[in-house]
Automatic annotation (TrEMBL):
It comes from the Eukaryota. This is Uncharacterized protein. It comes from Orbilia oligospora.
Length: 353
């Protein structure tokens, strides 16, 4: 029996429900498309599709193009979708993907997020704190941290996660050692036992906040890494990433949100406001000395001297990761100008720490 794709559109929301059809009169591709432009018609169409005879809902796919939580016109739709997802077991109704730019709290108002397996979310990150004498996050930032924590707490079945924060500012001060809201977020994030793929488009909330990845993660992609601070990279180097097999690290000279990513290393300040040493300014970066990760099979790092980055990241990875694909090793050495001897100890073995 063919799978069908039900797609309903109305201004700011597009909802697609994929079902299994038993109706022999369906199109050859098993699809039916419904387009509506009024809220009442939209909600009616959703209910008709969900309750239609011969249609068993297999999964749902929702895209929110704009934040709409303050628009009263949408609230009845949100309630209907929440009731729908709450009334069905995951075997009959699972949300495979949600994409949009909105506050994380909105998702828990729309869906039973326990059935959420894939999530791509973009949300606005406001200024950490406008008071130059206060290193603590502002109350609004704390609210955003708590909102993301609650989303993770109510989404235990996440398998694929894309976090795409939209940044407003570049002016930070070094991160305090004790930020309870971030510590709570870390603990909840580590409980995502099914998460195997993580894509982070930029840092979360602060360029020095390193959030450890759950043990099940096998594929990790990090973007705009030149916007991360040295303090973040130090924490990165000390974390084992126990089961990560594929690591992709991408710096960027392009504009990201409200941040212009070209580096300001000549100013002598790191991304978190900490001073840079004369040596760091001279080499346009810093050295990690070692990384704990040793489970990699694939590694990609687009190094460039134009941006402020850890200059020995490739060498550290090569020393620790014997399971890297041989072609990957050769490509990394060629790109970074390393020789085979540089990645081995005096006995001819690959160096380890």
């Amino acid at each position: 029996m063919p799978y069908g794709s039900f797609k309903m559109e109305c201004h700011q929301i597009r909802c697609r429900l994929n079902g299994r059809h038993t109706d022999k009169n369906r199109d050859s591709d098993g699809s039916k498309k419904i387009s509506v432009h009024k809220m009442d018609d939209f909600l009616t169409s959703v209910k008709e599709v969900v309750t239609a005879k011969g249609v068993g809902i297999r999964d749902g796919d929702l895209y929110l193009s704009k934040p709409v939580i303050k628009n009263e016109q949408f609230h009845s739709i949100f309630r209907a979708l929440k009731d729908l997802s709450s009334s069905r077991p995951a075997s009959e109704f699972s949300i495979t993907s949600i994409t949009g730019q909105f506050n994380p709290t909105l998702l828990t108002k729309i869906f039973d997020t326990k059935k959420l397996t894939r999530l791509s979310i973009s949300f606005k990150q406001i200024q950490w704190n406008s008071d130059p004498n206060t290193p603590e996050p502002s109350w609004r930032t704390k609210e955003d941290i708590i909102a993301l924590k609650e989303l993770f707490n109510q989404s235990p079945n996440l398998e694929v996660l894309v976090l795409n924060p939209v940044m407003e500012i570049v002016d930070f001060r070094p991160l305090p050692e004790d930020v309870p809201a971030l510590q709570d977020l870390t603990q909840v994030f580590l409980t995502l036992k099914k998460l195997h793929t993580l894509d982070m488009r930029v840092y979360l909330f602060h360029p020095s906040y390193f959030i450890p990845v759950p043990e099940a993660v096998k594929t990790l992609s990090l973007y705009h890494v030149n916007l991360y601070s040295k303090a973040w990279w130090i924490e990165f180097s000390k974390f084992p990433f126990k089961n990560v097999e594929t690591l992709e690290v991408f710096p960027s000279e392009e504009e990201f949100g409200y941040i212009f990513a070209r580096d300001d290393y000549q100013l002598g300040k790191d991304r978190d406001g900490a001073p840079r040493t004369p040596e760091e300014i001279e080499i346009k970066g810093y050295k990690l000395g070692n990384v704990e990760i040793k489970s990699l099979k694939k590694f990609k790092f687009e190094d460039t001297e134009k941006l402020f980055l850890p200059r020995d990241l490739t060498l550290c990875v090569l020393k620790r990761n014997d399971r890297l694909d041989e072609q990957v090793k050769l490509d990394l050495m060629r790109q970074s100008g390393l020789t085979l001897d540089e990645t081995r100890d005096r006995g001819g073995r690959r160096r380890s720490f």
